[in-house]
Task: structure prediction
Amino acid sequence: MEIIKKKKEEQPIRVLHVIHGLGSGGAESILMGLFKNVDRNKYHFDFLIRSKNNIYEKDIKQLGGCVYTAPPFPSHIIKNYKYTKNLIKSKKYSVIHVHGNALIYVYPLIIAKRLGIPCRIMHSHNTSAAKKVYYPIHIINKYRIRNVVNIRLACSEAAGNWMFGKDKFYIVENGINISQFKFNQDVRMLYRNRLGIRDKFVIGNVARFLPSKNHFFLLKIFREILEQMENALLILIGEGPEEEKIKKLAEELGMNDSIIFLGKRNDVNCLMQAMDIFILPSNFEGLGIVLIEAQAASLPCVASDIIPKESKISELIEYVSLNSPPHIWAEQVLKLYKTVRREENSLSLQESSYNIEKCAKKLEKIYSIDYDEATNFFFGMTMEM
Result:
């Protein structure tokens, strides 16, 4: 009797994503989009965080992943190190993928190197450290991890140059689900009616209330717009430590009746339909994923000129210097509003490198190369992504 040997079922590649928390930020949203679009039969995602901020745990569990919470860093540095080492050692990961705005938390990569984890990735999501005190640590760690990391990723050229300097890196775009943001006139009217803004000129902004997002300057721009268009309305979506200060400033400027604070929302794609123009005057951004989303929603955009130009995926966006006074920004906003016709453009963007499905395929290929290839990834080897 012929004995047929059953082929051993191939095990998925186990990936541990390391990120500060799983809140409402852009990096977290992108990670979830990637998780939903990778082949989960071939790639298993877990997440290691070090804060209590975790709004995606239920979604992650439904997709088959786990969330692990390490003791805070750096306040409990020794406990954090031991927890991280035990987790990486026990779960047999093949990939350790660390996400950050700066090189502050690199212990997982050092541990992974010592444990012989074949693929060790550092991924840059911004162009500056959140706090100035972090900058010296960032510089030290830039040299410290040079022989530890074997894959360097960034969301833009500027983000890569900030984190890695002259060391070579590869760009994985911050992808979105283009179809979710497709302009829809019916959704636009539905949301404008719900918000009671049917006849208003609606300016939108989606950002956490942080100094880097420059809400104080945004309010000054809006005050200039209000002087020329009394029916103007500003919608602010997001939350954060600066929120109460911004609300107080709005009151002091006498603009309470012309600003709606919507807080954290899970229907940003629909709310963008209700807007007429989008403004992002950030002091710095790794890319500005909300600009990609706004353009996918066919929204004209005015953004600060420090934002990486990779954010321009259509002719709907104009950049203005942060050195320009508020009235210059207001003039550009009103010019775009009067000249740009809102039309659905998702078909052309489906072929864009910002399509989340394409981004997920890029990541799958990076995860799948073997250790020798990973070592030589930035030294002459070419990869068709």
